[in-house]
Amino acid sequence: MKIAVIGTGYVGLVSGVCFSDFGHDVVCVDKDPSKIAKLEAGEVPIYEPGLEELMAKNVEAGRLTFTMNLAEAIDGADAVFIAVGTPTRRGDGHADLTYVMAVAEEIALAAKHYTVIVTKSTVPVGTNRQVKQVVRKANPDLDFDVASNPEFLREGAAIDDFMRPDRVVVGVQSERAGDIMNDVYRPLFLRDFPVVITDLESAEMIKYAANAFLATKITFINEIAALCERTGADIKQVSKGMGLDGRIGNKFLHAGPGYGGSCFPKDTKALARIGQEHAVPMQITEAVIKVNDEVKRRMVDKLLELCDDSFNGKTVAVLGVTFKPNTDDMRDAPSLTIIPALVGGGAKVRVVDPQGKHEGEALLPGVKWMDDPYKAARNADLVVVLTEWNEFRGLDLSQIAEHMVTPRMADLRNIYSNKDAKRAGFDSYVSIGRAPYEASADQED
């Protein structure tokens, strides 16, 4: 099959590369000449493990190309995927569909034969019917169908998610479109991965409902973690005990500094807005948004307490700034709340992140970027573990504590323990949902 993918951002590029690895002929389209130039040179503009190698393999095989020419790309295509951004619209929290509708019109004007126009971008319920109207208005004589095919890719594990999905969701209005979408995903169907065929609205809703539910799980365990800190319970043990219940499961029950990234913040806000527009308030989702913001602010209070109620003049080493490991994505990361509070309070902040500098330099002014966590922690007053990169999971804590002015650690991902901190010689160690360790209190006991 021939497939065109419009947009070479995270979703578009991963999808295009993976489709080509299925054996389809894929053309990826973008209006940004610098992006296309990089891709044609074999450079991947985003960080995603394994993507560069998979892209090179399929380019070499002749199945994957890149262009700025949309008309050329969709000529002869069986399916055209729209994979452009749908950022949160300022003022009302709704998804901004400007790019989606603009691309839909371009496709309509350029298409010369039957094709399935597939929305891969995350869009509010009812959007695909709007896309159909836009296409019909721009080209009344065009023979086409519209389909919804939301993505469920985790950054840092996107290739595996695409190749071994929990499910593929496809919304269609005709058997003809359904047959083409089944052909697109035939390699997965043949390996017994479920392909769920629905109507357009159900496919759109599945995406929002799934992300809102996962965001709710994260926020729930973060609230329980706060309660654990007050009652003496251990959130790790609580999470394990909950997760062993098959009805709950252990995923997304890891307490931390709040969710971030490209999906959960945007999609929860959009779902809340959809509910308001249809007079069915999404009260749980609205509460999740509110509590998640409070969780991030509560992290600042933890750090402030460790710094004797003042950041002024303190040196703080922050390990990790991306919203999660194995990505360079900084969108809505907890670091964007926590680090500005440190800098604004007068702290000298040193930052270490394997991939965060590319975006972080512009988003986090006033910090010093370093490559070595040991050097960053030297003569520091506080070390903060903010993203659980593998590079930070096996640190020599004794070496870090030895060279700090005041050996104190805030482990906001719970990758260490009170026992680790005590053995390493830290004066204070705080984490999420667990009793803090203080050397003075320990000595008194």
Automatic annotation (TrEMBL):
Q: Among its keywords, does the record have Thylakoid?
A: no
Q: Which reaction does it catalyse?
A: UDP-alpha-D-glucose + 2 NAD(+) + H2O = UDP-alpha-D-glucuronate + 2 NADH + 3 H(+)
Keyword NAD, does the record have it? yes
Record domain UDP-glucose/GDP-mannose dehydrogenase C-terminal: where: 317-418
Give the SMART domains listed for this entry.
UDPG_MGDP_dh_C
Q: Which InterPro entries match?
A: 6-PGluconate_DH-like_C_sf, NAD(P)-bd_dom_sf, UDP-Glc/GDP-Man, UDP-Glc/GDP-Man_DH_C, UDP-Glc/GDP-Man_DH_C_sf, UDP-Glc/GDP-Man_DH_dimer, UDP-Glc/GDP-Man_DH_N, UDPglc_DH_bac
Task: Look up the EC number in the record and give it.
Answer: 1.1.1.22
**Protein family:** Belongs to the UDP-glucose/GDP-mannose dehydrogenase family.
Return the protein name. Answer: UDP-glucose 6-dehydrogenase
Q: Which organism is it from?
A: Octadecabacter dasysiphoniae
